[in-house]
Design goal:
Length: about 750
């Protein structure tokens, strides 16, 4: 190398105690007197396209290899395949994730002639036996999983990295076992990662146009970024992590624009702010809402998700029983059913034992329980809160104070300050005979509080609480069964936690109403409700139910375990052939990626400390590339990983997939930082006020190629070693499984 190129072989081209010159604000004497439009030569562009094409072909092969195996339902295909079928049927269902990816699967099924007849009920159900075009359904996530690879490559390339670095990042993504397994099944993560990379790629392209603000190209890439982050969030709510990643970059960009040295007036700065608000906030919100509008437009029929929604929501669905609801009147004999557990409020001529097993004393009153079957002992007659019962024939309204008479035993429902059978903090619920004096009248009065269905009590449509007037407890039941003396029926007690959602009951039947009376009093017409109200209700349900997924699972894991692959997930097994699919990443590749993340922290810390003491170990352009590009990918890893530590729900290894892609991009960038000398530049588009910029060329020495090949060989070897568990197309022997058990927590099937 000669001339200015020879200086680029040094990591730093300035005296140790001299701050480096900013090449964007001052040109050197050797700088060309023209604006450079592209740093890459035509030969480099050709080589880059060849590398991109080859890597894309490898990605397609890795995802589509024997995609027909197994021809059975695998892991969460039981959920997302089922949801696609419900879309094709138009049957309403509930899921904690936004609708886009599931609608994409349904659209794929529609185009290949699938009618949604199969409901993916169990892992291991045969596709071919049920005439399910599962290969076509799997082809969509497989294709998008393959297309993630060129996006990774192009993102690295647009960020200014040499072909070798870009190829390394793409290669790591191609041959990661977790990414392969998860993207060749009927699952959502393929779409999530694809749209995430669309977002990152679009933002990098947008940032490169910063010298031409408000140009067509500038607007196009900003809007593309906004649409992409909306699509990411429309697949899963964790797409908000992508929003946060880009949001931090945008805030930093705006902070830089606010610098007085930029010579922008406040009006010009506000124009930048408003433009980004439109492109990166308003447009994404509109796109996100659009998919829910389509979701509601498709799911117009009653389905398995009805019970998750309010009465008002359910009444908008064709065939929902809420439309059959009739108004309840004083004097009616009704059945009362618990909303969460579906048991009836029940009583019978048997008493609580005077003394419980733990020595506590009860009232020995008549038992009130939760019973799961229809029975005459489920009937209760509604009375008003006065002895004369003057409201007979009037409709029961919200906030009315009522009494409930158990028809079969002629006794009043009663709550009092006696501990319940299984919960000492809750009150016992019993009954009080009508033959007794009226001294306990106040203990038999309850206020009915309607939570949905309007201001009048209706069968099926109204969810309500029964609030005891004297002791201020709500009638409640839970899944715990009573002992033999209670015939193993559910305990009913008085709950002091009045805001608990499981306090809700509904009336599902009125005794003695004939068909003509029901037809006269009910309205079977499907009702309408505003889109915004439906969206807000569904969004709230999604968030609350997602947070409530706290039940333990044998294959759940904690976030601290994911980068180190402490636990995997058993996706599928076949006893006859001893084949299995076990979700696990590429161990060697992931562990090396973790080391590269540590390098980022170490180098950043050392650079900051050195500069604090007046030493400038990094060339200005190398430093900028390290912080602005590699640092951006590192921030992506942070935002797609750390938030999981704050979640209380059950988590699994596949939640690490988006962060894993960022970690591989960081690994490739760190390799380039260590072994490649200098950077290619400038990479940003020139603008009308761009100063002359000096052409810089990164030098890729032989050692960079050698170490890159070694890394690829290690990664590929590890991938192939674990491939039988990733594809499930062959069954390793017991000895083979033992060799693949790097960690004792990897609980393979058929390992003995």
């Amino acid at each position: 190398a000669t001339g200015s190129e020879s200086t680029l072989r040094q990591r730093s081209t300035v005296p140790k105690h001299t701050p480096p010159t900013d090449s964007n604000t001052a040109a050197t004497e050797d700088a060309p007197k023209k604006v450079i439009k592209s740093v890459f030569t035509s030969a480099e562009k050709t080589n880059s396209l060849i590398a991109l094409a080859g890597l894309t072909a490898l990605a397609i092969v890795s995802r589509f290899y024997k995609i027909n195996e197994p021809d059975e339902v695998v892991f969460d295909e039981v959920h997302f395949g089922k949801f696609a079928s419900y879309y094709l049927r138009g049957s309403y269902f509930f899921d904690v994730h936004p609708p886009l990816a599931k609608m994409m699967l349904a659209a794929m099924g529609y185009f290949i002639g699938y009618d949604g007849h199969f409901l993916f009920d169990n892992i291991g159900d045969k596709y071919n036996d049920n005439n399910v075009p599962y290969i076509g359904l799997r082809a969509l996530p497989a294709f998008l999983g393959a297309m993630t690879v060129p996006l990774v490559y192009m993102t690295m390339r647009e960020a200014g990295f040499p072909i070798l670095t870009c190829a390394l990042a793409a290669f790591f993504v191609i041959f990661d076992n977790m990414l392969v397994t998860q993207t060749r099944l009927i699952l959502l993560d393929s779409m999530l990662v694809f749209f995430m990379m669309c977002s990152i790629y679009s933002y990098v392209r947008f940032y490169k146009t910063r010298n031409n603000p408000f140009s067509l190209k500038w607007w196009s890439w900003m809007i593309a970024t906004g649409i992409s982050i909306a699509l990411t969030t429309s697949v899963k709510m964790v797409g908000l992590f992508t929003v946060a990643t880009i949001g931090v970059a945008v805030i930093w960009d705006l902070w830089e624009l606010l610098d007085i040295r930029r010579r922008l007036t406040m009006q010009q700065f506000m124009n930048h702010f408003y433009a980004r608000a439109i492109g990166l906030i308003l447009i994404p919100v509109v796109v996100y809402l659009f998919w829910f509008y389509v979701h509601f437009a498709i799911l117009i029929n009653s389905g398995p998700g009805d019970d998750f929604m309010s009465t008002e929501f359910q009444e908008t669905l064709k065939g929902n029983t809420m439309a059959d609801g009739i108004y309840v009147k004083y004097g009616d004999n009704i059945t009362i059913r618990h909303k969460d557990t579906s048991v009836y409020l029940h009583s019978h001529a048997h008493n609580y034992p005077l003394r419980y097993d733990d020595g506590r004393i009860s009232s020995a009153g008549q038992q009130v329980t939760g019973y799961s079957h229809e029975d005459p002992n489920n009937l209760w007659q509604i009375y008003s809160d006065n002895v004369e019962n003057t409201k007979i024939g009037n409709q029961v309204k919200d906030k009315d104070v009522i009494r409930l008479l158990h028809v079969a035993t002629s006794s009043w429902l009663l709550a009092h300050d006696v501990a319940s059978p299984t919960m000492t903090t809750n009150e016992e619920i019993t009954t009080y005979s009508t033959n007794e004096d009226g001294s306990r009248f106040n203990e038999t009065t309850f206020q009915i509080i309607l939570e949905s269905g309007g201001d009048k009590l209706r069968t099926m449509a109204s969810n309500f609480k029964l609030l005891h007037q004297s002791t201020k407890v709500a009638i409640w039941t839970h899944s715990q069964k009573l002992p033999d003396w209670g015939f193993e029926q559910q305990e009913v007690n008085g709950n002091k936690n009045l805001v608990q959602k499981s306090n809700l009951w509904l009336s599902d039947n009125i005794e003695g109403k004939n068909a003509s009376e029901i037809d006269q009093e009910s309205s079977k017409a499907v009702k309408t409700r505003s889109f915004i109200l439906k969206f807000l209700e569904l969004q709230g349900k999604m968030i609350s139910h997602n947070a409530g997924l706290t039940d333990s699972h044998p294959y759940q894991s904690s976030p601290i375990e994911w980068p180190f692959l402490v636990r995997g997930i058993s996706f599928w097994t076949e006893n006859e052939t001893r084949k299995q699919i076990y979700l696990i990443g590429n161990p060697l590749g992931m562990w090396i990626a973790v080391a590269s993340l540590a390098v980022i922290i170490g180098v950043s810390g050392a650079d900051l400390l050195s500069r604090r003491r007046g030493f400038y170990p990094l060339n200005q352009d190398v430093q900028k590339r390290f912080y602005y590009a590699t640092g951006f990918f590192f921030i992506g890893w942070i935002f797609h990983y750390i938030p999981f530590f704050l979640m209380g729900r059950a988590l699994f290894l596949h939640h690490y997939m988006p962060a894993l892609v960022f970690s591989y991009m960081v690994l490739a960038a760190v390799h380039g930082f260590i072994f490649i000398e200098g950077v290619d530049g400038p990479i940003s588009d020139p603008g009308p006020e761009t100063r002359p910029r000096q052409l810089q060329r990164a030098i890729v020495p032989v050692i960079a190629y050698a170490t890159g090949i070694i890394l690829m060989a290690i990664h590929l070897g590890s991938f192939l070693f674990f491939a039988p568990l990733s594809y499930g197309t062959s069954a390793p022997s017991v000895a083979g499984l033992a060799r693949r058990k790097f960690l004792p927590q990897w609980d393979y099937h058929f390992a003995k």
